[in-house]
Amino acid sequence: MSLQPCPAFEIPEETRRVACAAFPRGTLCLRIADALGGLYQDADFADLFPRCGQPAASPARLAWVTILQFVENLSDRAAADAVRGRVDWKYLLGLELSDPGFDHTVLSEFRARLTGGEAERRLLDTLLARLREMHLLQARGRQRTDSTHILAAVRTLNRLERVGETLRTALNAVADAAPDWLAALAPPSWYERYARRVENFRLPAAKSERERLAAEIGADGQTLLDAIAAAPAGARLAALPEVGTLRQVWEQQYRRDEDALAWRSGDELSALVQRIESPYDPEARYSTKRSVDWVGYKVHLSETCESDAPRVITHVETTAATVPDVKALPDVHRALARADLLPAKHLVDKGYTSPQVVLDSQQRDGVCVIGPLGEDTSWQARAGKGFDKAHFLIDWEAQRATCPAGCLSQTWKPKTGVPGIETQVRFSARDCRSCPHRADCTKSKTSARIVLLQSRECHEALREARLTQTSETFEQEYAARAGVESTHAQAIRRSGLRTCRYIGLAKTRLQHIATAVALDLVRVCEWLDGTPVAPTRRSRFARLQQAA
Asked: What is the pTM of this model?
């Protein structure tokens, strides 16, 4: 497919007349077209198409349709039908009333071009640039960020189902690529085990039988991998994604004991952060957060929260489910810096904060991260009356510390091997043994108290932040962070954010970006119409307390 860019499309007069007559009060599509018409141009996507070939559908219109899908949470077929049959969509797309539209598969091809060219962020960047021109979005204000879990578009598999389905998927892929070769290799037992979907209710219930079946599946998979390595066309077969997934799953689920494969124990698997959970989406990961456990991804939404401007989503960061929030925040700041949209104050919850991240954000990006830092988790701090690290006076210039009883430290030396810790401070064992407060300071009967310190900058930033976050001023400023939860709720209800529509991290990221653009369009149009932000809903019973 080749692209023949067209100039900005105009709304045909007949389409305008019929749309305005049918919707005298307007619709969202009409308001979007009037406020932001001509937002996307074919030339914006020209690099995604070859120069020769059959003319492609207008990528600018396809971009609009992709976003409208998430405005109304439509499937590809339903979106294609809306292009053919809805006057308000034709108005926004600048189409004649008689235009027949396109086949729904064109949308899937367009998404593949966006993700293949790493161009999915253009959908959001183009809108943000227009909003800046309209003075509805400015940098160096306040923004807030929070994450939510995303469920992969795959069924949850137990370990035995996972290895069986992984091998079955690989066999299906090899059957397409080299049917004659596989027919000569496969024994009759393979057809009995892998001809249909591997499901738990068909598997044996006894533990010994399940372990025996796991060993048989492991041996079958290794036989296939060894045969592919020795085959004349082995390089071509080994390059199949399904075969690569098979190899990874076998390395994760089995270990080699002498000449045989052994089923790994649960303790061995728990250390595998990058464990593949499904052969149908190898990038989806298992994670747990408080009472929620899921297989899939995580999305971080960042939005403005100014009282005199619409709340605009400025950045979307999609990660594997296993990536901690605190590791995502530097990436969010780098992306906002590239777009010249860094905030002056960034409101986040405890998951995003650490002394190092707060310090780096201020020094590198000039961003004041506002959010509670984690409390001291030592037993001394949890006891309430113990001597935690905050009770020690640190003299950084003299490189010594003073304990609550007034004793000076004996040694001050660098500490390696512990992430984030730079210094180890040790007190005298003689002083500690005779100290009347020993039980509040250390549980050791013979050794002295040891205090581990971060860098001076991190230590002082942590101490200052813990003092600040107990003030009323901090609580009032931090209260605005909670509003980002409503963004998650709106995206889930309106656009189906909670569940992946597509397979893989790249297309899941595209889904989230399109969702962000859809919400921004809705919010901007409501702002321009003068529609106020709905207040937090309270139950009738809860309102009784306020009235009393």
From this structure: 0.91
